[in-house]
Structures are given as structure tokens and as C-alpha cells.
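Researcher: Quick test of sequence recovery. C-alpha cells follow.
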């Protein structure tokens, strides 16, 4: 199983476990995917429904190891970054897929706490390109900054800043599009006007009037006087 497929596999296996009767094979696979998706607590609750076989015990130990590694980076009596480094190394040997992104971040945080900046940068370089985001880049920038590689750190921070600006611009575009769809003001359109204007009626007693629906600024009247004929009016539209 590839790491990019973990989220999809977790959704599929969760649906299968809900629809089908509980089976040991389905629950065991679901627990393994939950551990790789960094949901070790759910994995332990799933494994408790199975018999204590050697495979189930090993899966429990792996989920417990991840929980202990993350707790060892917190404050208080559990603080032990050296244990977190060892725990993630042991967990990496027990799985047959690349190290999940969340586990890599646990290792990086533990390396920072133990002042192993080079090891933290090496761990970050192992992250697959499709999993690199602003948080991974931020840790890379910190590692190079604390190792006195100021120019390299500045380049990474500039990339993060440019990415945040693009993200904000895209979010604003999406909000504007949603507002245009929801607001009736944005959906309002100017009424269509005919290409050919109606002719102005001519009468001997009544002065011809302009066509209704058009303001005076759009039209002008020009009087054309011909010999031995009544004067006519031609209405033209201003360009």
C-alpha cells in the first residue's frame, strides 16, 4: 500500500466494516490502516475486538509505541525526546511502507529537542514531494536557520510566504464567486434593447413623441423640410 492511498483506504475499510458483519480479517486491516493514518487510539479500540494472536499483539505494540512517542514530546513527567527518536526508529522497522508524514514530524520534533538539526533535516528530505506542505517547509527553514545557513533558510521562507499569498488570493476568489452566485445583485443583467428602433409616429396635429422606454439623451430629432410636402421627423440614436 502506498502512503498517498492511506486516506482512501481508510474510508473504504471503514465503510466495509460498517456494512459487513465483523470479521477478524477486516478489523485487523482496518486497525493497520488506522495506525498508518495516525489514528492509533482508534486502532487500539479496533484491536481490542480481536483475539490476542501474535499479529494482533504486534499491532497493539506498534499503536502504543506511536502514542508513547507523541506523548514523550509533551510537557511534564512524560517528556523524553530521546525515547521518541528511538520509538519512531523501531516503528519504521515494523512497517513495510514509507514512514507516514505525521510520524516524520514526530521524529523531526524529537531531533530538534535533542539538538540533532542535521538529523532533522535528513528526516525532512525523506518526505515524498506530494506530501510536502507549508509545515514541512517551515521545519526545513528552521533547521537551516539554526545551522547558520541563512540564505538557504531565507529562500525557503520566501517560498512559504509566496504560497500563503497565493492561497489567500485563491480563497478570496472562491468567496467572491460564491457571493456572486448567492447575491441577486450580481445576477442582475441590463435589459436587452432592440437593434432596430421603432419609427416615430407622424401626425398633423400632434407632435411626434419618442419611443417609450428610452431616455432623451439617447436620441435627437432632425427636421427635414421638403418642398410641397409636410415636414417629417427622423429619429436617430446617438452612437
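Model:
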Amino acid at each position: 500500500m502506498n502512503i498517498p492511498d492511506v486516506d482512501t483506504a481508510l474510508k473504504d475499510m471503514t465503510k466495509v466494516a460498517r456494512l459487513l458483519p465483523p470479521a477478524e480479517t477486516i478489523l485487523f486491516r482496518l486497525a493497520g490502516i488506522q495506525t498508518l493514518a495516525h489514528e492509533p487510539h482508534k486502532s487500539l479500540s479496533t484491536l481490542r475486538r480481536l483475539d490476542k494472536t501474535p499479529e494482533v499483539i504486534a499491532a497493539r505494540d506498534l499503536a502504543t509505541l506511536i502514542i508513547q512517542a507523541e506523548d514523550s514530546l509533551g510537557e511534564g513527567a512524560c517528556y523524553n525526546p530521546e525515547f521518541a527518536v528511538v520509538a519512531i526508529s523501531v516503528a519504521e522497522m515494523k512497517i513495510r511502507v514509507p514512514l507516514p508524514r505525521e510520524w516524520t514530524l514526530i521524529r523531526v520534533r524529537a531531533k530538534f529537542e535533542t539538538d540533532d538539526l542535521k538529523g532533522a533535516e535528513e528526516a525532512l528530505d525523506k518526505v515524498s514531494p506530494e506530501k510536502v506542505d507549508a509545515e514541512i517547509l517551515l521545519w526545513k527553514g528552521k533547521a537551516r536557520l539554526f545551522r547558520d545557513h541563512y540564505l538557504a533558510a531565507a529562500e525557503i521562507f520566501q517560498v512559504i510566504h509566496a504560497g500563503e499569498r497565493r492561497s489567500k488570493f485563491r480563497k478570496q476568489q472562491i468567496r467572491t464567486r460564491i457571493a456572486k452566485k448567492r447575491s441577486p445583485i450580481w445576477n442582475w443583467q441590463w435589459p436587452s434593447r432592440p437593434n432596430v428602433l421603432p419609427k416615430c409616429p407622424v401626425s398633423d396635429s400632434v407632435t411626434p413623441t419618442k419611443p417609450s422606454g428610452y431616455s432623451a439623451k439617447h436620441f435627437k430629432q432632425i427636421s427635414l423640410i421638403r418642398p410641397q410636402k409636410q415636414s417629417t421627423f427622423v429619429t436617430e440614436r446617438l452612437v
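The chain is about 60% helix and 5% strand.
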